Amino acid sequence: MNFLRQLLRYVPTLLLSFFLAVAVWISAVTSTDPTEERVYPRAVPVELVGLDPAMIVTTGEARQVNLRLSAPASVWEQMTVDRSPVRALVDLAGLAPGTHSLPVQVQLNLNPVRVVSYSPRTLTVTLEELASATLPISIELRGDPAIGYELGTPAADIESGTVSGPRSLVERVKKLRVVVDVSRASEPLARELTVQALDENELQVAGVTITPDKINVTQPVTQRGGYRNVVVKVLTTGQISSGYRLTAVSVFPPTVTVFASDPALIDQLPGFVETNPVDLTGVKDDIDVRVPLNLPQGISVVGDQTVNVVVGVSAIEGSLTLNEIPVEVINLSPDLAASLSPERVNIILSGPLPLLDTLVAADVRVVIDLNGVSAGTYQLVPRVELLGTDLRVESVLPGSIEVTVQKATPTPRP
Questions:
Q1: Strand residues in 253-382 grouped as ranges (E)
Q2: pTM, full prediction
């Protein structure tokens, strides 16, 4: 009994020692790893849990939460690295369709961390029942085919589709449609087209899922009786100038649509129609002209009655060698004299034959420019000057001239 009384006498002292030790330990820990209060660096997305599979969320409110937390510095470092130390949840279990204001629950996956504040604390959520409807897919044609062609009945590989989503949006959908553009079509079309959901005012309804969202559509396009597409053949007469050649003869459009009230006349065509003759007599340059078509009696062209004919003409090229052309010295100082070795060169020219045929000696000049040259011996490249021609210098033989420059000997006076 005496022992117990003595032990109980020391209990307050033991408890005081324990609390003092804990306080010293906490003080030591907080001094080395102080607690800091900060704004969490990332907005936390709000997760919706417990949603009935037969319901859908249609709210447009932002689903993010900003938090202010308190934690030791070492924990803040870990939270910065970890991508998901904090979760924000809204429980939708057991909710009926309608708009609900629900509390946001914050969960912390690290300790010791304390939530100081967060915003928003509630989230407004609108729930609707999921619904679906099956509707036929209509095909709408836009534009007109090429002249002389007609459209058949379009066909799709799938004739109906299912619209699913919030009941309010599904109930707005009155029809499903694909659009086929047949503008200027002259052959059958086969395309994959996107299915559109439309309301009663022909406006597209967004926010619903269409299954399938694309279908394949084929659109027959055939030529009407009495119409036919034929190529255009250009007729030419005469000869271009001597020394020139044809480089191209083209026509636009290359094909035309012809029409006859008697389909037999169309069937008798050979597959082409000719232009009126284009006269090329004496032509030396490109020509671009509008030319009428030479059509059989009873046949007419749909649209423009003329075609554009472009004829390309260029000179035939050749070469010419000029021998023993004297080399001239220019820009030599008056107190100097120059001697050349050799004094004449051979030149090979190329270009259009008409220019080569009309070339005269005055059109060609070979010079060596001695501007600023002092006395001495040099190897210089002569320069060929072609006056007023489009000829090209292919080579000069020899390619360089030895030039000796010396003081000029004065001429004695009598």
A1: 255-259, 272-275, 278-279, 287-294, 300-301, 306-315, 317-330, 336-341, 344-352, 364-369, 376-380
A2: 0.51
